[in-house]
Design brief:
The protein is α/β, with parallel strands linked by helices. It contains 11 helices and 12 strands. The chain has a 6-stranded mixed sheet with strand order 6-7-8-3-9-10, with helices on both faces. It has a 4-stranded antiparallel sheet with strand order 2-1-4-5, with helices on one face. It has a two-stranded antiparallel ribbon with strand order 11-12. Helix 4 packs across helix 5. 38% of the residues are buried.
Length: 333
Amino acid sequence: MATDTSATSQSPQPTGRLEQSNPDYDPNIVIEAQNLTKVYRDFWGRQKVRALNALDLEVRKGEIFGLLGPNGSGKSTTIKLLLGLLFPTGGRAIVLGKNATDVAKNERVGYLPEESYLYKFLNAEETLDFYGRLFDIPAKIRKERVQELIQLVGLEKAKRRQLREYSKGMTRRIGLAQALINDPELILLDEPTSGLDPLGTRDMKDMILKLRDQGKTIVMCSHLLADVEDVCDRIAILFQGDLKEMGRVDSLLKVSGETQIKAENLPESAHEEIRQIIAKHGGKNIVVDNPRTTLEDLFLNIVRESEQRPGMRPTSTTGGDADSATPPADPSN
């Protein structure tokens, strides 16, 4: 859900503009969490649950970053902290060069929640026009933007139907369009393919990839591991508020110690021959590489290990590149 903050952003924000005051600000890092912690407490101030524990991560400009974890792992809490809807108990989060608690940065953020709460008596055009007005988008540009987004999400034939008549899949599509109305730099997607049929799921993934190609930065939460595997450049796996693994998807899923050979146009008689024989028989696109496990297997293994070893923290990015690894948080912090 794109969030309007035009009224709030007019007031001064003395601590928010890190891109001006912080000499270490890197414009290529869109999100930076440092020892980010959230503890929910009861009425008496006693700790009820530690939803997020000393999270350290970076999301870089122009990448698709996936947040994975079972229910209660801290994914939604992380998203709410990034949006400034919650205040951290410890640590801090920097979003687009500003403290996450500075809501002015939400003018550059688009958000699709797991459940889109839209006005059911409006149609698609009226819905997008309404949210465009909240962002003070000029009428001419707003009209063009509305039609562009309706075409992007594939609702041209239903753009004048009231949202009360939309299926869940159609509601997800108009929800995505609404999240993009302000042409955001950062897009947060919570279960973006929820309720979509296979064709709609493929269209949604193609739209996400297209947004990345346009230079957008995307953070998505999903329980559908295959969808994350298809579109994400890097992922972080959370379990009970702890970061368990982070790195590039292709590196994390690579199986070390095994080699696979792929070739095209080989005769049946050559299947058991070695690589030199493959070349002799005119095989094309010869590939010698490490086979990959699946993201689902990686996820389940990490969760099972975490259940057996509750205090386990990641010591390195398994099979990942060194610059994408995040060191474990200092427990003394």
